[in-house]
Write a structure and sequence with these properties.
The protein is built from ten helices and six strands. The chain is of the alpha/beta class.
Length: 263
């Protein structure tokens, strides 16, 4: 039979366990905070070394070598649509374009990330406006956003006016941080639910104001989020109106590639 633990020692053990638990929670919160503030991008370096550049047996096609994208650096920002949710980033059309043109590719996108709204209280991400200053230098900036912002407005956690102010702030931030970079913006797909039309309108209007090229995915993409047969084939699930699957990215790549080439 085990000896009975003195009440005084039992009390001390309980206090000690509470202290240990509190310390553990503080450490977890600190670690989480560090993750949420870390600005490291997912990086794929597809650039060629000197040997590959001058390999006569495997020459680089003329249209690739002479492309404005060849060997350049691109920084991608956005929400899960740019991050590809829980799927591989290498499945995305923009990562495949980077591979095709032997670019240095950095993906700063985050799931549930907004352009204008802070989601740290929900244990997600700060707005993109807060971490643009931390990005590395680049030749191209691609923003694929608006979906998470629209959803925040739908849930009553933001307004369309706040989105507009945040979007303008972000464009100014891109220009200030990388004035030499070519910037391109992609709107959400065609979704009729308010405030999506207003989010798209604002993105187009403000990009025009700053003379930043914008691709209106609601009218130019050929992506039909309202067609169930289409979403079954080209989206993560048939109920998804945001995330292309690997087939969807391949379908859209031609248009996305032309957009980047024209920046």
């Amino acid at each position: 039979m085990s000896p009975e633990i003195p009440k005084e020692n039992l009390f001390k053990n309980i206090i000690l366990m509470k202290i240990i638990t509190k310390i553990a929670l503080i450490l977890v919160c600190f670690a989480y905070s560090q993750v949420m503030h870390a600005q490291d991008a997912v990086v794929y370096d597809y650039r060629l070394d000197e040997k590959a550049l001058n390999d006569n047996k495997n020459p680089i096609p003329y249209e690739i070598r002479n492309s404005p994208l060849f060997g350049k650096t691109i920084n991608v920002f956005g929400d899960s649509r740019a991050r590809n949710a829980l799927k591989e980033i290498t499945d995305t059309w923009h990562c495949q374009v980077a591979q095709k043109y032997h670019m240095l590719y950095r993906n700063y996108a985050r799931n549930k990330c907004c352009i204008a709204f802070d989601r740290r209280r929900e244990r997600w991400s700060p707005p993109i406006t807060e971490f643009v200053e931390d990005m590395d230098s680049c030749d191209y900036i691609l923003l694929i956003g608006g979906h998470s912002d629209a959803e925040q407005i739908i849930s009553g956690k933001g307004t369309i006016e706040e989105f507009q102010d945040g979007f303008v702030k972000l464009l100014r931030g891109f220009i200030k941080k990388a004035p030499q970079a070519k910037i391109g913006v992609m709107t959400p797909w065609k979704i009729e639910t308010p405030p999506y039309p207003d989010v798209i309108r604002i993105m187009i209007e403000k990009c025009h104001y700053f003379t930043i090229p914008v691709f209106d995915c609601s009218t130019q993409s050929g992506i039909y989020v309202w067609e169930m047969d289409f979403t079954k084939k080209y989206f993560h699930t048939y109920q998804d109106n945001t995330h292309l699957n690997a087939k969807g990215h391949k379908l859209f790549m031609n248009k996305g590639e032309k957009f980047l080439l024209g920046l």
